[in-house]
Amino acid sequence: MARHAVILAGGQCKWGVREAHLVDLFQEAAKACFDDIPTLKPKDVDGLIVASSYAGRCSFQVNTAPVIAERVGVKPTSICTRVDVLCAGGSTGIILAKGLVESGVADIVMVSGGEKLYTPQKWEVFYSELASVDHDWDGTNGMGLPPPFFSLTAQEHMMHYGSTKEQLAAVSVANYNYAATNPVAQMQKTLTLEEAMNAPSVVPPLTLYDCCPITDGAAVCIITTDEIAKKFSDRPLVYIRGTAQVCLNSVSANFPGAHLADWKHTKMAGEKAYKAAKVSPGDIKVAQTHDCFSISEVIEVEEFGFCKKGEGGEFCGSKQIELGGKVPVNTDGGLLACGHPFGATGIRQGIEMLKQLQGRARHQVNGADIGLTHNLSGANAEHTVLIYGREPVK
Amino acid sequence: MAVLGIPILENLYPSTMDMWPLEAKEFNRNWQFYENLKQGKLTTTKCKDCGLVSWPPRVICPECYSENLEYTDLPNKGKIIVFSEEVRGVPLGFESPLIHAVIDLGVAPARRVLSRIVNCPAGVLKRGDEVQLAVFPVPALPIDKGKLGTVMSERVFFAFEPVKK
Hints:
A: 394 residues, alpha/beta, Peroxisomal Thiolase, Chain A, domain 1, 2 domains, five-stranded mixed β-sheet, four-stranded mixed β-sheet, 14 helices, 11 strands, globular, B: mainly beta, five-stranded antiparallel β-sheet, 1 helix, 7 strands, 5% helix
């Protein structure tokens, strides 16, 4: 009988500026995950995937997986490894775990992700971000911190499609308001359009609320098969139906689109994941897309087919991303308000999708049965898409 | 010079904290690119077998996997397609204003090179402005040569600057 991967449970620690060590955060998140499924014990876990990109630079720790395994009390026998795909590390862990449990290599895999980015001296994380892009060719131009790159992206979207600053602000407002009651989010406050429009400048046209913060945090989820999941939980099963990960460039100068607002690789990742999941854009009831910047969400809703190319600004500006809209997006607050500890973000998205598809989300989308999560990595260098559903692909 | 909090790193060079490329021949097979820059030339590699010009330079052709590559000149002048200006919050290692631009150098694969604009105050640049290559020195690379001691290997990097009208 075919084995189908499901996300069984998940949890995250409080995200933000944390007075804690990297491995402390992983322990807190593991506890939150097991609290979500009291029938499952650490001894039941046979595989561990750790997603962390900055452990090496900010915590002076490589070969992270054995360290995390020991701290969280799991003793892996099928897989114990770390992945580094920056912002998509958590999603990549879930994709790999799906393959491992469906092939029978592993049965119950803990996918964990986390970063400790606030170092004792404030300059260090900003400086270390030069490693997030191609060091020799983009880092040397000061592209390590992403606001300039996404300023160029926003300007080209405005030039080619006529999107407006108000439409960008509408994304920030929606996502902050989703996070206002999220107890583990970094930003827990409501935001008005007026506040967003009058915020301090970062790199024009981007202002404060257009940009996600720097975040300490961790998240953990459990990936297993549907048959194993039934032994531990009576909740509805949430299947990982299809995935894709597309990389067409690394150096920003080799961007694959006609301009910086034409995200061909995003579109390709979406189409491939839809095909694998046997769904179409119209089937997506809820999405968690990579809102590292407000402009990112505007472009993503276009490339994933929630609206026509070029109409993302209008889509987001007319409340289609809010509850009751065509596709509610980033219903837990997204990167903009939850924060973005790179390797943990894809797991945070998976946990929100688990809750949405089980009908227990804080901002529940009525009838949510199919959902999409997405990450962008680096200077728009890679795109990762997962489609979750209440039924397996048949 | 002491490193705050880590006295054992006094006078030691940590390449893992170096924002500039390790350009020297001992550490980089594309060292010729930087030597060409020192002559005021922006270059990249071209495959002598299939003809593909790559950016940035490399040691194998990504198309046909030939190792038979040669350096070829790229134009030193181009036009700004779009640019951004960061005035406050400029990261360590860069001065305000930190200006980035997508530049059209007129030939593939350099129709949309993303680079930095230097020697230019904030608020004066316009889309369509002509810019030219600007080569500048960056700190020399200290290479441990054993008994010979530490040899300083000169380094340069590049950006673009407005063409004076």
